[in-house]
Amino acid sequence: MIPLSWLIALSAVVFVIGVVGVLVRRNALVIFMSIELMLNAANLAFVAFASHMKSLDGQVFVFFVMTVAAAEVAIGLAIIVHLFRLRETVFVDEIHLLKG
Amino acid sequence: MVAALFFGFAALLVVTSLMVVLHKNPVTSALFLVLAFCSLAGIYLMLRAEFLGMVQIVVYAGAIMVLFLFVIMYLNLQHDVETGLQIAVRRGLGWFVGALLLLAGGALLKRGWALGPANDELPGAEQGNVASVGRVLYSRYLFPFEITSILLLVAMVGVIVIARGRTRHTAREGGAA
User: Fold this and answer.
1) CB contact under 8 A, A57 and B136
2) Which residue of A21, A53, A55 is in closest CB contact with B21?
3) Beta partners for A27?
4) How far is CA B2 from CA B52, B97, B117, B160, in A?
5) Is the Cβ of A37 closer than 8 Å to some Cβ of chain B?
6) Domain containing A28: what range?
7) Rounded to the nearest 10 degrees, what angle do helices B130-139 and B142-164 cross at?
8) Cβ contact (<8 Å) for B122 and A54?
9) Phi, psi torsion values for B140, nearest 5 degrees
10) Nearest-Cα residue of chain A relative to residue B86
11) CATH for A64
12) Is residue B83 helix, strand or coil?
């Protein structure tokens, strides 16, 4: 049996790596992958607590999070493709249409 | 044995997710992300969440990452050029904020939280948990499950609308001209 604190620490580390990826990178696709990493860190925390509490509810929630992540990836990638057609770039600091 | 396996998967997960963030080539990043998802699936299996481990590989490492790779190769991206003072400052700031967040998490973890009472035993845990997850999903969480189908339908319609983009608009203009 793996101690709960190890799993939560691992989840925190992966989440922070995702946050750093969002803050550091300019490529919208890599930022998107970092968001996926953060979602997976949250999933790991869900599964860890579900396993510790011997309850299935956490696992069902992970299932829902995965569904939302799939929908989000599909729409986000469509937006990125559209943006690339429009602006010829996926670098987020070159996209400042709302800046005026 | 279990601890060694856990540390192996955990080290693989951390290293591959760092490579996702650090590598310059988006295709390599995506492939490292597949590896990260696979090691996460291994951890799920060790936590006796067999259903989620399989779904993680099929949905994440399979479907979602194929979508990512398809888009990266469709856009035909070069390596990221990341030079200049502004980018260096932002990168330093990003790492600083990450370290701060990790310290905050460590401080929270040290506090020693009390957990609520656990159930006695997972039902049907000895022959895999697919059946028990399905039973919970189709009884207690039936309504959210049905809402999920609407969510996926909305996402599908949204993607089709976004992907069509302005082609119809320009076609009409071209027809008028």
Assistant:
1) yes
2) A21
3) A91
4) 19, 34, 25, 46
5) yes
6) 4-99
7) 90
8) yes
9) -75, -35
10) A93
11) 1.10.287.3510
12) coil
Q: Is the same domain home to B71 and B140?
A: no
Residue of chain B nearest A76, judged by CA positions: B159
pLDDT tens, position by position, for chain B (177 residues)? 888 999 999 999 999 999 999 988 888 999 999 999 999 999 999 988 889 999 999 998 888 999 999 888 888 776 666 667 777 888 888 889 999 998 988 888 788 777 766 666 655 556 678 888 888 889 889 999 999 999 999 999 999 998 886 655 555 555 444
* pTM, to two decimals: 0.86
Please give the structure tokens belonging to residue B155.
Answer: 């996402």
Structure tokens at B23: 């590598």
Looking at the structure, do residues B7 and B71 belong to the same domain, yes or no? yes
Nearest by CB to residue B21, choosing from A7, A34, A75, is A34
The count of structural domains within chain A is: 1
Residue ending a domain, among B34, B60, B77, is: B77
B101 falls within a domain: no
Q: Indicate whether B86 belongs to any domain.
A: no
Residues 5-34 of A with CB under 8 A from B: 5-10, 12-21, 23-27, 29-30, 32-34
Angstroms from A87 CA to nearest CA on chain B: 12
Q: Which domain holds residue B11?
A: 1-77
The CATH number that applies at residue B38 is: 1.20.120.1200
Answer whether A55 touches B (CB < 8 Å).
yes
How far does A40 lie from chain B, in Å, by closest CA?
8
ipTM (interface predicted TM): 0.91
Asked if the Cβ–Cβ distance from A13 to B37 is below 8 Å, we say: no
Buried b (16+ CB within 10 A) or exposed e, A50-65: bbbbebbebbbbbbbe
In a domain, B83, yes or no: no
Domain count, chain B: 2
Residue B107 located in a structural domain: no
